[in-house]
Amino acid sequence: MLQRVRQQLILAQVRIMELEDVRDETAARLAEHGQLLRAAQSLADQKMDEAAHAEKNRAGLQAQFEHLQHIQQGTSETLATTQARLAATERALAQEKQSAAEFAAQVARLTSVQQDLEARLGEAAAHAANREQRLTQLDADLRRLKSSRSWRWTAGLRSLERLFRGKQP
Amino acid sequence: MSPSAALRLHAEIETPRPLHAFAHDVRVQGWCLAEELPEPPPVRLATAAGIVPLTDRTARTDVPTLFPAHPAAARCGFVLSGPLPVGVHAASLEAQRPDGTWQRCRQLTIAVAPRPFAAVLDEPISEGLLRDRVKVGGWALDAGEPIAELSLRYGHRDIACDVGRTRDDVAALFPGVPHAGRAGFRSQDFLVAGHGPVRVRARLASGRIAIATTKVTFSVATDENHAANLDLTVPRVGLADAGAATPPVPPAPDRAARPLNLLFVLHGTFASNSALHVAALANELAAAGHACAVAVTHDPETLALHDRPAFRGLTFAEAERGVTFPDGRGPDVIHTWTCRENVRGLTEKLRSRHGARVIVHLEDNEQHLLALTLGRDFADLDRLDDKELDRLVPPGLSHPHRSRAFLAAADGITVITERLREFVPAGKACLILRPAADARHFYPRPRPDAFRRVLDVAPGETVLFYHGNIHAANAAEVRELYAAVAELNRTGERVTLIRTGHDRVPLPEPLATAVAPFVLELGQIPHHRHLPALMALADIFVQPGVPDEFNDYRFPSKLPEFFALGRPVVLPRTNLGTLVRHGLDAYVLDRADAAGIAGAVRALRADPALAERLGRGAAAFAAQHFSWRRSAEALANFYRTLASS
Questions:
Q1: Chain B interface disruption, residue of A4, A6, A35, A47, most B CBs within 10 A
Q2: Is residue B68 part of a domain?
Q3: ipTM, interface predicted TM-score of the complex
Q4: Closest Cα partner for B373 from B271, B475, B280?
């Protein structure tokens, strides 16, 4: 009997030690959980503050965005007008360029004609000069002929020729 | 200032985190002031589930130091209190503007728990000491669910009560709780002998257990089963001495420059003696930065028996699918405990899978164990062919041929004793890995004399302690210890043997009957860390045995624990017994058989100075020779040497 009591006493002590372990482990885990909850709550609070701050910033940025959007709208309109004007200018410029090209082509053509004419004029002048020279020569030859004794000796004959040629129908 | 303009608020919530309230009583404290207002603004805590209003103002002495010119600084403290539903709420601390609108100044979360279980004992008294054997009653209420069963606990007593009794007063106190009107209880019987503060323990309808303390202490001295001379009010005498000095926690080991992935392969479960060694080494190696895992044959839940393991536990079946460490790699080293068939098979599979270095640890004369288990001469067994041996050798023992080949193929061998080097192939790297005791629990402890008196241990009585299982290999020598105890008591020396562990081999008659009155069999103590408090009851530790083919090669794992407790150790001149100095470190016997043990115990009883000297010598020897830290450092160096070779 005494042995059984002693045995059970010791085993009860072992059980107590086991329960003390469980208690200590549980207490430690509870403390850990409390610490975790504390940290989680602090983090959540911090994140909520950050979110509120971010929301405030977002609202400010939204206002800035809307302002910029407004400015952008005006700028866009101005830009569109300018672009239209630019396009018209470009079109006019293109037309001017085309006209200039055509004018240049015409000038070139005229220049060519002029050069041709000048060449032909030169040729005509030369030809005329030749003729003039020939004419002068012929005139001289004529004068020499007319002044020759033969021409004079044959004047009667030529008068008769003209006479006869004039009576024919 | 226009009435709706935003206030410049300064506020702080000072209720400590976590903000954790009970549903009926949320209470938050802090301070708040607005720069524009001469008075502190009204504040509230707003949640989606409800508002916690301002219920009190408090004076502040600290805020004026922050805002010396502000007229409201000294009285801007607030208390918000009120109910909130159970749950975690996102809340806003809000201050009221002059136009009546509310402006948020802080956001926070608050956890609201259910109303705690409440119990009051009010019949016949509601507080104080009750000594009478009467029936008692009161009420107990959990707001969430009704109570199924209830009892009152005090001292070693648990008194059943009837529940569901009508209590109109409780219903009035808790109008929102439908079952509050039937919260009454009353004990079924009159109080019985017992002493202690009363706790109410209830099992709720869901099965949950709820406990509440009361303001009443029962102190009933006697009843029909307890004699009046049994004083139930004396303080408890504990086994463990809470005031005993514990050794200082050693500093953390140096971190390894190149941490390794280490896999230990055990031949049993985490409940085995070998697991104590592996766990201690793995914990130390993990503390040095190595990643450790331990594979066991079965029952992985036995890992819970170890104190704060710093390694991963897994089964052989899990390990066979591959072992991956936190860095995503496999093991660098597989340290397999013994060359027994079960660990050999797994180790060879893992070696080919992971290409790890393999180290085999030897802790027993495997040949002797095989021969003993099979009841045959080892030389005869060794001559058998593999096919026949495969049939004979169980998974938990070493195959004579395959274990030899396994050792030959290993990258290194660790041995627990010098003699085991005989089994190490020539030229193979080898380290003696000396076991130790867990220094967190095994250290010199004073003898708990008060508890020994409770156990009715006589002043001159000697207490021996032996922990460990009795199996085929050690049954004969443990019988010698029992025989010594019987002999000592027979010759008038009062000796008690405290035993723990399983007895797989029973004591023979008539010894069992003769020794029974002098042996306290405590069975298996699940947690090894609880043994030292029991061991402290002992005057002498005895390791029985004689030099032989079994003892010469092994190192009983209890020996470092015996030495660490600082008691005289009686042991045979084998294994550790060949290293200690008789008369200084321990009491060494050529043969620790019944006669030798009885003689040693008589000698130590007769010479208290010798016992005292051997107790101190044992502790000193333990401090000098047994250290898991040092063993783990040597092992880590061994791993490094092999890894770089």
A1: A6
A2: yes
A3: 0.72
A4: B475
